[in-house]
Amino acid sequence: MSELELRLEELGRELVFPPAPDLVPAVLERAQRGPFAWRRLGMAVALAAVALVAALAVPQARTAILRFFHLGGAAVVRVETLPESTERARTEGLGFRVPLAEAERRAGFQLVLPPGERPARASVLGDSLVTVALRAYGKTLLLSEFPSFGPGSLRKLATTEASVQPTHVGHADALWIEGPHAFEYFGRNGFVQAPVRVRGNVLLWLHGPLTLRLEGPLTKAQALELARRTR
Amino acid sequence: MVDRPLDKAELVERARRGDLDAWETIVRTHQGLAFRTAYLLAGNAADAEEAAQDGFVKAYRALGRFRRGAELRPWLLSIVANEARNRRRSAVRRDRLALRAAVEVRPGDAVPSPEAALLAGEQRERLLAAVEALPDEHRDAIACRYLLGLSEAETAGALGVRAGTVKSRLSRALARLREDLGEEWA
Questions:
Q1: % residues pLDDT > 90 (chain A)
Q2: pLDDT in tens, B146-182
Q3: How buried is B172 (Cβ within 10 angstroms: 0-12 exposed, 13-18 middle, 19+ buried)?
Q4: CA-CA-CA-CA torsion sign (B159, B161, B167, B173)
Q5: Closest Cα of chain B to A95: distance in Å?
């Protein structure tokens, strides 16, 4: 090996690399869930659109919508059957991954987070739904935030298989959804996220002008405790 | 029965059957080098993290196609590096590489004089600047082979080219560095 090659090897040992992130939680989460099925999603979008049109067009079908819960920018709709929807990997289908500061700039608000949590990256869906992955209670969780700019920006569809319980985070209204349900997201500029099936539990609550959504395999008590610390 | 660490082949076999604990061990073992490789190829930490993460997920899903008995590390690095190279095509800028402030003096080493230390520091900076000024395909070959210490076969896998191409790129890159740096490096 020449002198120059030796110097290059030495140079490699003296390089300063950014700290290597721990990739394990995200890799395992995604590996466990399987690939994101775009083809199935496309079919699901088509079927959901047909189901929605049918539900609104046929008078008897309108009775299938049983009850609404409104919370900030979210609405939870009780239905008899869920629309055809796809189950996504929990960390996929959440939009573009960008540095956290860039996500906040695009969405136009600063995220509220549990103390000590400041993930390097966040996902932005549409123009205002920002999602970060967190670890708490040994579980990987998703925290999504968006401005409560009008009813129906996030719509959750739940059958009687899922329980929907009004609750509170501090003095703020909240909803705890336990069991399978689907959600759709509507952005400010006409962006629409196709229905996505969710199996984990979800806590929705208000924080100032924002609506927050915590998804993951937590108990209600754990989710409420984490929500109270998120400010 | 005595518990013992699983060897690489057993880990791969278990991961292939869907054992996520085995895959976790594999990711933990290789994630540092995978990230550094992706960083040098993609040019920034954010793209490197994404490339490494996507690479490990794709590798897990492709384990069925991994040839039994083959070396795992070159295969993993080739997938991660491919992700990193794809990201670089759309990247706007590359982070400037940085060196440690001072070379660590190991026990038993003679302590260099301040002048000698300054000179050595300047030489390292000049060498790094010359590497960074190389055309991408030469710079990548130098980065993988020397800065990361990959074997020629691993470098070929990471760059998606044949071993012979790596040899010729390295040869041209070294000649270019010698030309740029002058006689002291000949």
A1: 13
A2: 999 999 999 999 998 999 999 999 999 999 999 988 8
A3: middle
A4: negative
A5: 14
The ipTM is 0.84
CB contact, 8 Å: A12 with chain B? yes
The structure tokens 């040899």 sit at B167
Unique residue bearing structure tokens 């055309």: B135
The length of chain A, given as a count of residues:
231
Dist CA A84 CA A104 (whole Å): 32
CA B9, B29, A26, B6 torsion: positive or negative?
A: positive
If one compares A5 and A198, the residue with the highest pLDDT of the two is A5
Whether the CB-CB separation of A96 and A124 falls below 8 Å is answered with yes
Distance CA B136, CA B42 (A): 11
Instruction: Check if A138 contacts B (Cβ < 8 Å).
Output: no
Residue B143 has pLDDT above 70, yes or no: yes
Q: Which residues of B127-161 are buried (b: 16+ CB within 10 A; e: fewer)?
A: bbebbeebeeebbbbbbbbbbbebeeebbbbbbeb
Q: How distant is the Cα of A28 from the closest Cα of chain B, in angstroms? A: 7
Cα→Cα distances B95→A16, A27, B8, Å: 12, 25, 34
Cβ atoms of residues A74 and A146 within 8 Å? no
